[in-house]
Amino acid sequence: MKKVVVGLSGGVDSSVAAYLLKEQGYDVIGLFMKNWHDDSVTISEECPWLEDSNDALIVAEKLGIPFQTVDLSAEYKERIVDYMFNEYERGRTPNPDVLCNREIKFDVFLKIALQLGADYVATGHYCRKGTITNDDGTETYQLLSGKDPNKDQSYFLCQLSQEQLSKTLFPIGDLLKPEVRKIAAEKNLVTADKKDSQGLCFIGKVHLPEFLQQKLKPKKGVIVEVPADASQFSVTIPEFQNEREKLIFQSEKPVYSETDGKVVGEHQGAHYFTIGQRKGLNVGGTKEPLFVINTDVEKNIIYTGQGKAHPGLLRNTLFIKEDELHWARPDLALKVDETMEVKARIRYRQPLQEATLYKVESGLFVDFKDKQSAITEGQFAAWYLDDELIGSGVIS
Length: 396
What we know:
The protein is an alpha/beta fold and 396 residues long. The protein has three domains: 3-206, Rossmann fold (3-Layer(aba) Sandwich); 221-311, Roll (SH3 type barrels); 314-394, Beta Barrel (Elongation Factor Tu (Ef-tu), domain 3). The protein has eight helices and 18 strands. It has helices spanning 12-23, 48-63, 73-89, 96-115, 162-166, 177-186, 208-213, 243-251, and strands at residues 3-7, 27-34, 67-71, 120-122, 127-133, 139-145, 168-169, 221-225, 262-267, 290-296, 301-306, 314-321, 325-327, 339-345, 353-360, 363-373, 380-385, 388-394. Strands 5, 6, 12, 13, 14, 15, 16, 17 and 18 form a nine-stranded antiparallel sheet that branches. It has a five-stranded parallel sheet with strand order 3-2-1-4-7, with helices on both faces. A four-stranded mixed sheet has the order 9-8-11-10, with no helix packed on it. It is globular and about 70 Å long.
């Protein structure tokens, strides 16, 4: 009998994943990951993990499976939280959920499961795994989007490797969320009506500015509003010698100076803000809402523009450096000067967009057919062929 360790989070999705695996005849063990108890950086007054671990234990008892808690807080602090602080300090916006999957659930946690003699780990993610048998008898694993279009979580798993996928099962990937809740209710699982968790992976709801202020000190600076018709946006597009020159031009983030606009307010630190952000600026009196179009952490200036259609928010092309490029399907990786038509997204829940990949020596250009809003450094771009996620990378 194959042994599976399920990451029981105390939510409905992982509870049903554990139930389905037991029904399928696997030897199932429930493992709860405790990822936070650092008093020097408080997350919130509540203690969500206590309630979650308790619910996970009740589910395990109901299903008649062994249960234990593992403390991964040291690894979580080092690999996720410290990384987050470091990225925000540099003026980038990290995605902790993608990192948590790559670094914690499918690395540290996976290794613990294998030490327990498991053949696989399983999670309650809404995605699917496919297997291709190659001519030489080896297998290639596919990361496929979940059947529920409202819950597809393949984006959060965009950094998984073939090795990690080979040891992973996604039991609820073929189900819709209402079907998952129905199963939980029919089996009287305590998590059947529990709300989906919000906020940081495994930590709970976080008020980000306050969280960041505990390590990144407030520093007063100015908010500059850049008009939509600024000279910055009326640059004559040069004649390009080749496609590469055009892509480099299109992928470059606009650079602003204070003279491009007028000072309209003050902020407590450019490193607390991200491109596309609207809340927290506290500047009134504009015809349309202000959005952050750029931050300069060196000079501690936030540049803003009115409205979602402001040209400072929109770009066709992004770039991913070679060392931050990842192929879930290494056999499909592009060689220098090769291109590929794909569908891509730059954030979770964004509908897939038509794009072309262009491989160069220093990395990869992702060139979208339509302009994208708030392409943000530090976030992940992921690309697909049909419903298979084949690669991803950190936006430069």
